[in-house]
């Protein structure tokens, strides 16, 4: 892996699989996340869920909500609350732009992935627009057509001498 590859040095901890089905991803960005105590150990064990999670901008800060990081199995009485809101670490100008996009344009901030990058936990955050039922059906049709085309090409290549 080279340093210029987009996934260089990444270890994916959790993926929000429903996000691409339910939302149209317009823009992606990387953000740090403020964690406490044994949360990183729980993340490394894969005890995290991004289902139904989202981010919002409040008081010039971005907060990640409804992410569930289970308590560390070998922790003590000072374990963290699994469903607490977690602060995302972004630059001030990025936060201001996100505030404008979410309030004026009505877009939503959805976490797509949690991953380790050089030993630090990062969140891939996406600025999204919700899909309607007909949009979801169109996406499914397009994916099925692409799959059929790929199968036809593969079958044709197998037959060629």
Keyword list:
single chain, 161 residues, alpha+beta, Small Protein B, Chain: A, 7-stranded antiparallel beta sheet, two-stranded antiparallel sheet, globular
Order of helices and strands: EHEHEEEEEHEEH
CATH superfamily of the largest domain: Small protein B
> Which radius of gyration do the C-alpha atoms yield?
19 Å
Strand order of the largest sheet: 1-8-9-2-7-5-4
Rounded to the nearest angstrom, the distance between the terminal CA atoms is 35 Å
Q: Beta-sheet strand percentage?
A: 25-35%
Helix content: 25-40%
Count the beta strands. 9
Tell me about this structure.
This protein is an alpha+beta fold and 161 residues long. The chain has two domains: 10-130, Small Protein B, Chain: A, CATH 2.40.280; 132-161. It is built from four helices and nine strands. It has helices at 19-22, 39-44, 92-104, 133-159; strands at residues 10-15, 23-33, 48-49, 54-58, 61-65, 68-69, 86-89, 108-117, 120-130. A seven-stranded antiparallel sheet has the order 1-8-9-2-7-5-4. A hairpin with a 2-residue loop joins strand 8 and strand 9 (120-130).
């Amino acid at each position: 892996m080279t340093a210029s590859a987009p996934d260089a040095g990444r270890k994916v901890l959790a993926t929000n699989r429903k996000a691409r089905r339910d939302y149209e991803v317009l823009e992606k960005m990387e953000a740090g996340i403020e964690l406490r105590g044994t949360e990183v150990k729980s993340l490394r064990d894969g005890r995290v869920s991004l289902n139904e999670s989202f981010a919002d901008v409040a008081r010039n800060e971005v907060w990640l909500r409804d992410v569930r990081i289970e308590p560390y199995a070998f922790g003590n009485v000072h374990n963290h609350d699994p469903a607490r809101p977690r602060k995302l670490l972004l630059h001030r100008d990025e936060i201001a732009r996100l505030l404008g996009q979410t309030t004026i344009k009505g877009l939503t901030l959805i976490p797509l992935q949690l991953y380790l990058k050089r030993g630090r936990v990062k969140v891939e955050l996406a600025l999204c627009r919700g899909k309607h039922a007909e949009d979801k059906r169109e996406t499914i049709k397009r994916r099925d057509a692409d799959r059929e085309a790929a199968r036809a090409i593969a079958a044709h290549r197998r037959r060629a001498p």
